[in-house]
Design goal:
single chain; 366 residues; alpha/beta; Lyase, Ornithine Decarboxylase, Chain A, domain 1; TIM Barrel; 2 domains; 9-stranded mixed beta sheet; 8-stranded parallel beta sheet; 10 helices; 17 strands; globular; binds pyridoxal-5'-phosphate
Length: 366
């Protein structure tokens, strides 16, 4: 067994593969860029932490200027709170009494807002808050076109807001929406028009609630794939873009994000060479192709044939191809579907391991 701390100081060719690497200089520059963009447009940054699931990286995001973090799951929020993160949004629905009680009890350790999109959840939230002697802050999730979670904009949101405001144990903080359906649109004008149209549904819903005397101080939206559009949309108060700290091939090639650089790579070793192809020691259990395949870094001679569980099979397209034992590095296809496969990130600077960050949130799905 290797103790991850033993890896500190090692050069890249002394790292056991496969390994998940973070180029620290690029990572820090992405972090600064995202924080600075939000700051320049006077919008708070509440990065989604599902791409890294690491309390340590969450802390770095807060130090860079984030107002808090976003989680997808209650157990992730519990982990983050245990590690001292004090301001969390669970951008997801929680509807079962046992989990709602955990959510209510978590309020003792951190401010934890949760999304709600159904009036039937209101008495359940209320019961949990009463049992824990806590108050639960909420954002109403509005479906702004993605057709995933969310009440319909307008009257349905108003009805839910009224019901929340009748419960003294619940605090209505505002609205959230996720414009995930616009991310792949091209050309840029079509994407920005669709994004504005989606976000306007949040703004008009906000106006309706305000006109009925209901409180809406927060309007939370946005991911890496649209963060510049969302951060500059009037009325949006916070941005959930998270995975951009790593960047990946999907953000670049499918979502057309060009101002952030690749920080997250997978280091592999060639373990087999055949006449037409090579095999590396990383299959889909190491570098998922879900949503987008990983990209070979810094060489043009290999093309992905397929990933099986523990084998990555690559066609040799030109020249002799890599030799047995040679290192081949890949840019993550989609950071979210890659990082949770690993125990830790190795933070690299000038070719050496400078940091080991455990991915403590892996498996925190409940
Ligand atoms: C609710 C929510 N917010 C934000 C995001 C964007 O996250 P990221 O910036 O890591 O792509 C997502 C992505 O799926 C999401 O579901």
């Amino acid at each position: 067994m290797i103790d991850s701390a033993e890896l500190l100081g090692r050069s890249i060719d002394q790292i056991p593969t496969p390994a998940l690497l973070v180029d620290l200089e690029v990572f820090e520059s992405n972090l600064r860029r995202l924080a600075a963009f939000c700051q320049a447009h006077q919008v708070a940054w509440r990065p989604h932490t599902k791409a890294h699931k690491s309390p340590h990286i969450a802390r770095l995001q807060l130090e860079a200027g984030a107002c808090g973090i976003t989680c997808a799951k209650l157990s992730e929020a519990e982990l983050m709170a245990e590690h001292g993160i004090g301001d969390i949004l669970i951008a997801n629905q929680i509807v079962t009494p046992a989990k709602l009680l955990r959510l209510a009890q978590l309020q003792r350790r951190a401010k934890v807002m949760v999304a709600v999109d159904n009036i039937q959840a209101v008495p359940l939230l209320r019961d949990a808050a009463q049992r824990a002697h806590a108050r639960i802050p909420l954002l109403i999730e509005v479906d702004i076109g993605m057709k995933r979670c969310g009440v319909q904009p307008g009257l349905e949101a108003l009805e839910l807001a009224r019901s929340i405001c009748q419960a003294p144990e619940l605090i209505l903080r505002g609205l959230m929406g996720y414009e995930g359906h616009v991310l792949t649109l091209r050309p840029p004008e079509a994407k920005s028009a669709a994004c504005a149209q989606a976000l306007n549904l949040l703004i008009t819903t906000r106006d309706l609630l305000l006109s009925h005397g209901l409180p809406v101080e927060t309007i939370s939206a946005g991911g890496t794939g649209s963060y510049q559009l969302t951060a500059t949309h009037p009325g949006i108060t916070e941005i959930q873009a998270g995975g951009g700290i790593f960047m990946d091939a999907m953000y670049r090639q499918v979502f057309s994000v060009t101002d952030l650089d690749y920080a997250l790579t997978i280091l592999t070793t060639v373990t087999s060479r055949q006449s037409t192809h090579v095999v590396v020691d990383a299959g889909f259990k190491t570098m998922s192709a879900f949503h987008h395949p990983p990209q070979v870094l810094g060489r043009e001679d290999l093309k992905l044939r397929y990933l099986s569980a523990e084998h990555g099979v690559f066609e040799i397209e030109a020249g002799p191809g890599p030799q047995i034992g040679e290192l081949v590095q890949f840019v993550a296809g989609y950071s979210d579907s890659t990082t949770f496969l690993h125990d830790f990130f190795l933070g690299m600077r000038q070719g050496k391991v400078e940091q080991v960050w455990e991915i403590l949130g892996r498996g925190k799905l409940y």
